[in-house]
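hey m, so remember when u said the tokens were messed up on ur end? i reran from scratch. heres the input so u can diff it against urs
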Amino acid sequence: MGTTLILILAAALLAPVAAAAEDMRYWTSYSNPLDNTTEQRIRDDNYACIREVQLASSGSFSVSVGPPWWVDLHRMLGNDKAERNVKPMIGLCMQSRGWREVNGDDMKRLIKRPWTNYPAPVEASTFLVCVRDDALVDPDSHEKPLRINFDLLAGCLTAHGYRQLRDQNEANQIRVLRQHARVGPS
């Protein structure tokens, strides 16, 4: 009974750490082609990197001696440290496969205020190329994710015939128009 309670408590304490490690990460590349297969290649490389990191960390071995509560606490703290090391290791693996991480807050900001080229179809590769070309290295640390220069990005997207939407209502109107065009007139 006591061991089960400790395992449940340990799982409850580690769940937020595991969830925090699963934050959405965004990638671009200067060496891989950016086209319609980019998203799948990122998923494949990310999966392979996660497997490599899991395999590399599964060989570790440690011994704890003491009362059961001390051993459990020692394991929990060791798992917490391992979780913190996973994200940088996956990042290094992805870099070795030709990918560079883009700042997640910048990508969320870009997604929050979408662009359109209506009535032409939206081309994902245009966004991928513009983000790649306008993402800059942090001058303080080259290991940090790339930061998007939004002025340069706006110029790139505008040059490709896109404009930024004013608000969510306009985005919804264009979505309805695109769906209507796919279905055809009634």
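this time it looks ok to me. Strands lie at 26-29, 99-102, 115-116, 135-136, 147-148, 163-164. if urs says something different then somethings off w ur setup not the seq
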